[in-house]
Design a protein that fits this description.
With about 220 residues, the protein is α/β, with parallel strands linked by helices. The chain has 8 helices and 7 strands.
């Protein structure tokens, strides 16, 4: 993609990119970097009382609106079923699609879920992304740095010695919170996780002597 600088965020569900690195993505977008979001699933099981076609369209529309709001460039959905990522990723050739995207855009950084996040779909995304990355790295087709974040994990007990990326999001935090409000279909998640958005930002900021921060662990 020429000399353009791309940042990839690869997540399980359509609001994870805001819950996790939302403040960082906003900051990078403001610096002129291009944000591309890849979402493995529409997350229709999160709203079992609503028809799948309806919730699918809702989550798609919310994702596009949120992406525009944070200054992102593109959202791509892989349309896998929740709980079946490990099986469908290879069966439906999403591994090849991801390889093509990584080679085409050559992102400088990739953000994805931590392997110890508490949702199985999140740890599955971590495993699959790293498998594809490692294959491309062996073939010398990629040079990206890979960073992970937790959504449903509030403390990091493993890999404490891994290099970290600390991003001061003091100027983008309020926009991150406003972006989360766009996901009206995910009210239950908002109620469960909103407090953690504030808690983690304050905690990371306190640890690293900035106002508010997002903390990532370098995996590759």
């Amino acid at each position: 993609m020429g000399t353009d600088s791309w940042i990839f965020v690869i997540v399980a569900h359509s609001d994870d990119q805001i819950f996790g690195p939302g403040g960082t993505l906003i900051k990078y977008a403001n610096q002129g970097k291009n944000i591309l979001t890849i979402v493995f699933s529409y997350g229709v099981l999160a709203n079992p009382h609503i028809k799948k076609e309806v919730i699918r369209e809702m989550r798609f529309s919310e994702s596009l609106e949120a992406d525009k709001f944070i200054g992102g460039k593109k959202v791509i959905f892989f349309d896998m079923e929740e709980g079946k990522f490990l099986k469908q990723f290879y069966e439906q050739s999403y591994d090849e699609e991801l390889k093509k995207l990584l080679i085409e855009y050559a992102p400088e950084k990739i953000f994805t879920h931590a392997d110890d996040d508490n949702l199985p779909d999140h740890s599955a995304v971590n495993k699959l992304v790293l498998e594809v990355y490692d294959k491309l790295k062996t073939e010398e087709k990629i040079k990206s740095e890979v960073y992970t974040f937790g959504v449903w994990r509030f403390f990091k007990f493993t890999q404490r010695n891994n290099p970290r990326l600390i991003v001061d999001i003091s100027t983008s935090f309020n926009q991150k919170v406003d972006a989360l409000k766009i996901f009206k279909s995910q009210l239950n998640s908002m109620i469960s996780l909103k407090w953690s958005v504030y808690f983690k930002a304050f905690l990371a900021g306190f640890k690293h002597n900035v106002g508010l921060a997002e903390e990532f662990y370098k995996e590759r």
